[in-house]
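[Automated response] Your request has been received and processed.

Submitted sequence:
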Amino acid sequence: MDMFAILAENKIREAMLKGEFEDLPGQGKPIKIDDLSNVPDDLRASYILLKNAGVLPEEMELHKEIVNLQTLINRCYDENADDGEIISLRKKLTEKMLRYDMMMEKRKAGSSNAMISYQNKISRKLGRYK
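Generated structure:
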């Protein structure tokens, strides 16, 4: 064992004896471990940073907006719905879908099998748009 590992072990033992690990949030609960095996190696660090900050990558945020707009349009079909509002929502949806498709097309130029697998999993989680 190297010197840093020995120092770390000593610090952990001291903290345990002082009771610093007692009554911590989540004590006694299993640790939720994220499976990042399908996230490409070069994207894992940025994925974790964005996730911890509560931020989605631009394309996933755009995809989420597309799904929300599609859901909203689907729910607008009743006799009281304003046709102008539906047209406006469809226009926004088309613009976002076009922007998303252009973004994905640009990415496909250098995408790997791992990236394609990752994108498919994200799309399934968020719900595909049509």
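Summary generated for your ticket: The mean pLDDT is 80. Helices lie at 3-18, 41-53, 58-75, 83-108, 113-126.
If you did not submit this request, please reply to this message.
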